[in-house]
Amino acid sequence: MKAVILAGGLGTRISEESYLKPKPMIEIGGKPILWHIMKIYAHHGINDFIICLGYKGYVIKEYFANYFLHMSDVTFDMRNNRMQVHHRHAEPWRVTLVDTGADTLTAGRLRRVREYLGNDTFCLTYGDGVTDLDLAALLDFHAGHGKLATLTAIQPPGRYGALNLDDRTVRNFQEKPAGDGAWINGGYFVLEPGVFDYIENDMTPWEGEPLERLATDGELMAYQHSGFWQAMDTLRDKNHLESLWMRHDPPWKVWA
Question: What DSSP line would sit under the chain, residue for residue?
Fold first, then answer.
């Protein structure tokens, strides 16, 4: 099975770092968040990736072009113009990098990689969110209902801490309590090729007409995930993920 990762947006809400690199290349624990997402998929046996490039896509191309060296110990013999690689650690990934346009919207990017997907079921996600989602259970759920599309529904925590009050006496503090209970799109999809019939052109956002029409036609199902999920929309989110990683047991690190 293949996983498509949308990695072409501008990332304007985290411009403190995205002015230098694409948002999926912003690092958590010394590795791009894109790497973390791929490790989540690989843990569940999905090692074939199609990455939709746009803004500063060359940065992602250069990262994977040199990935083998990034993950290995290397001796450079300058005098004899030789390189010796030691202790190779590269993953068994197959990565297809596709330039889907600087201004193309999300569904348009997906439409542009249609030729690389064949007629099989595939996964889709954004290049900025990590989770401890059980992908095997998600795939089983999708296979069981027979519809064209499954999205992962999550309940985000509240953005701010809360006070527990007794009359007007503060009893304690609660950090990031549950939100209002609403389920939202968590960005991890399983799709059938039939979804391409719902994408009109490059200027179609995946979150707009395609998902709305799929829902209207009864072809969109929701897999409810109550575990960890966090998108990296802002520098605050990035710092939060970094702090979780530094504790050495980040909840999305499902791989060994």
Answer: -EEEEEE----GGGHHHHTTS-GGGSEETTEEHHHHHHHHHHHTT--EEEEEE-TTHHHHHHHHHTHHHHTSEEEEETTTTEEEEES------EEEEEE--SS--HHHHHHHTGGGTTTS-EEEEETTEEE---HHHHHHHHHHH--SEEEEEE-PBPSS-EEEEETTEEEEEESS-B-SS--EEEEEEEE-GGGGGG--STT--TTTHHHHHHHHTT-EEEEEE-S-EEE--SHHHHHHHHHHHHTT--TT----
